[in-house]
Design brief:
Length: about 110
């Protein structure tokens, strides 16, 4: 998947446009994403990419550490990562809502 497509699929949610599909503004977990020290409040493509990187970091870091956790099992670390990943999965931006966009009818992806 290209970075452009990935950011485009998440853009409605990351720009806080719930009327176009995505997050519910009342979700307290998703609202806490904005409290991250590195959260980028800009509306440009690069800003959205930076925020998307922050959201997927726990999954990436866990997969980088997983071989070491097999060698040295630290159950609390594994449980903590899985809990954090479950919280990050509360953001539902990559599920395309074709009801609001005719662009997906002609997508080659």
């Amino acid at each position: 998947m290209s970075a452009y497509l990935m950011v485009s699929l998440h853009s409605q949610v990351l720009n806080n446009q719930p009327e176009l599909g995505g997050n519910k503004p009342t979700d307290p977990v998703v609202a806490k994403f904005l409290e991250h020290d590195l959260w980028d409040f800009g509306k440009g493509w690069k800003n959205l990419l930076n925020n998307l990187r922050l959201v997927i970091q726990p999954w990436i870091f866990f997969n980088l550490l997983k071989p070491w956790l097999r060698v040295f099992p630290v159950s609390y670390l594994s449980i903590g990562f899985l809990t954090l990943i479950a919280l990050m999965n509360r953001m539902r931006g990559a599920i395309p809502d074709t009801l609001y966009s005719e662009d997906f009818l002609f997508s080659s992806a």
